[in-house]
Fold:
Amino acid sequence: MIDKTIQTSPGWIDLESIRNEFPILSRQVNGQPMIYLDNAASSQKPNRVLAAMEQYYTHSHANVHRGVHTLSQEATELFENSRKKIARYIGAPSEREVIFTKGTTESINLIAYTFGYSQLSEGDEIILSEMEHHSNIVPWQIVCKNKGASIRVIPIRDDGTLDIEWLSNNISDKTKLVSVAHVSNTLGTINPVKDIIRIAHGHQVPVMLDGAQAAPHMAINVKELDADFYAFSSHKMYGPTGMGILYGKASWLDLLPPWHGGGEMIKEVTWKETTFNSLPFKFEAGTPDIAGAIGLAAACDFLDQLDVSDIAAHEHTLLAACTKGMVSLPGLRPIGTAPEKAGVFSFVIEGLHPYDIGTILDQQGVEVRTGHHCTQPLMDRFAIPGTVRASFAAYNTLEEVEKLISATQKAIKILS
Amino acid sequence: MEMSVQNITLNQEEVIEEFSHFSDWEDKYEYLIDLGKALPEFDPKYKTEFHLVKGCQSRVWLHAEVSDGRLYLSADSDTVITKGIIALLIRVLHGQKLSDIYNADLYFIEKIGLKAHLSPTRANGLASMISHIKSYAKHSPPKEDSGETPDAQQQAMIDAIKEVYDPEIPVDIWELGLIYSLTIDAQGNVNVTMTLTSPACPVAESLPMEVQEKLLALPFVKDVELSLVWDPAWSKDRMTDVARMALDMF
Ligand SMILES: Cc1ncc(COP(=O)(O)O)c(C=O)c1O
Structure:
């Protein structure tokens, strides 16, 4: 049944075989074929990711870095090969610079605490942007409050683009770090991160990028970007939940103090003094999420094999069709109309509450996100309580976009 | 009493019967939305933070009055679907005996296929609205013969308040010194003046409601009048020694 709904987009990728890799896509919701458009919150998982994790648990599971026995050796090799693969995927010069965390949130917290407590002093500033996810706001608020440092915010324009000039004019000797989203989860804006990094480095200020929404949608090359720190989550890029990456330049990570203490991250422990392990283990206390790392590596294979730039082109086709169809609906206002956008369409409809729209869409099998998307300051900026957000992945089809549009039309009819 | 439990049941059956005529979800939701629109206008004077029920996707305001042992409800919401469900709840519960409301099993919501809306993860305020209604209903005046002396009552009120915690501090709000005054008259009317640690603390907004709920749950409490004040502002000096000890401030 689902197979019939597949419409191959102009020659880029083979949608049918992609969809066949995602068993969940054939399920129904409220008696209707499910149309999953909440990919920015979390994407679905292809068979090869599930299979890699199952294969690991059924054949090679043991703790890593700890045993001379065969299983531990095998598990360690799988785990470290995953790290290598992920390092290659993001263009990291060395796998020592790739730290396993449990997601973007933990990656940002790691830097907020280690950088914040070792590098910030009273009166210092860090610069964030108005479109940040709460996970790139709150850790900095906690640390800055503690250190007497303050946060400054790059404003955005009405179309949801960053006012880069503000950064040039306001970065100063007091600025110790710039941390911004590579792609906005609410607006879809692709930020000019190369320019941001160039401006910041011109003042010897390091830059952290929140890549949670970029990693699933574009080729990432941290070396080319010259990013000092880069954070992303496995579950948004076809990998398992509970796994994420912090990339950091070795020169920075060597300098920063350890964060969590425990096993794996030490060289030698005595009551008098403990010495710490080298990178990347210095930041990986305790038994890591081994299966998660293996699953993420399989997800990188999936993205590589399809070619993430073809996925991006496909998502762009979907976004263009979605934008065109949706803006013609009465009272609908898109939130985020930047020229450079990844596959996110956020909107409000005059006089209707996002909750009601989301509920009526769900009745029709269309799964979208409603609310503030963990970007409350951004909602304040647009003076709205929340939006409805449709976000795309490699497996979405033009027909699904059509269904979103007609389902929204029906919601308007029922709710007005 | 038997009689009015039956009333709630009868009301529920009536709603279920009505909804059984809808063969598709569209008609059902359209009807629900119409019910919401037909709800009597909510008195704007109750549209305050104090009457706001938790829920971050949508907001619900609830006002309840007790008269002759029965609970009278009015409510509002900023989403039309939530408001429709509120209209149904009010239709089933409005004017019923307190004890019946407290004991009522609201099975009709599941029967008409709207149970998902009551899930706390929907964050639409409905789940908390029902628990608020039930906690209002739990106090059943008149309670002339509670047999408690005023001092015992005072202690019981303090004990009830001590069950409320500031979300950010592991010390109960009595020990924190957030309660500025607490009195009860012979009719069981309680007057509370309280503050919050900081006006900027959004999580703490639910504290006054919680204090009110805890007090109303006491058998001898008839009504609670609560004033939230910022003057004098709370400071660490207002904490009891117990609180300081707990927070390692000595
Ligand atoms: C831009 C952005 N940053 C950070 C996060 C947090 O990611 P996680 O919850 O996986 O740690 C998200 C996910 O919602 C996001 O979209």
